[in-house]
Design a protein that fits this description.
alpha+beta; 4-stranded antiparallel β-sheet; 21% strand; 8 helices; single chain; 42% helix
Amino acid sequence: MKNFILLCITIVSVFSFGSYAQKAKVAAADKKYDNYAYIDAIKTYERVADKGYKSVDLFQKLGNSYYFNSELDKAAKWYGELFAMTSDLEPEYYYRYAQSLKSIGQNDKANDMLEKFHQKAGNDNRAKLFESSKNYLDIIKANSGRYKVEDAGVNSKYSDYGSAFYGNKLVFASSRDTGSLGQQKHKWTNQYFTNLYVTELGDKMTPGKIDKFSRTINSRFHESTPVFTKDGKTMYFTRNNFLDGKKGKDSKRITLIKIYKASLENEQWGKCN
């Protein structure tokens, strides 16, 4: 009898220790998640989930981490686990799950989620848009084939986005700069921080050689989404809050995005402000 009791105590102790260890790992991943280090958080969350640990908070954060990185097929998997546990969720999760389901072709289920999103968040403009255009797939099909989508000739395997025309040139953001000394990776995406690049366009809009846009504009952190005034002498763009070698941080010590302005002086882009 004593041996049986001892065995039971040992089993309970092992189970308790294992549960505590899993919760400790989740807590460590939560810190990474709160600091927008989604890639690192995913690694820990998935290891814990694969060992059978389940919670609403875990599945929310796993789904979000993939959703915020545009890996919608993986987001759909974890949002599916989330909705299997509970439907008592904020409206935003219905919307994110619907968008993720669309990415894997589950349109009927996505529409069902959007219907519920509309019921829960009727004043949301996205809900109103869905309610007024429920046959959006038919509209898309009716307009398909009018244009042929091709590789622009500037695409890389890294993140390329935020393009703008500047005279006969194309300026865009990319995280392709992997060779610069001291270049850092962004923990949100596990890719390098984006810089602005430029390419001259030929007669048929064919891009030529791709170069970095400007040393006075590009920094150690993100630059993206440039726009130019009609005369081409003023440029607005987004960048992490970094100016004159100093990082600005919010109350949580996070460096967020700001809009910067630069002017063209003597054919060179001047200092940002």
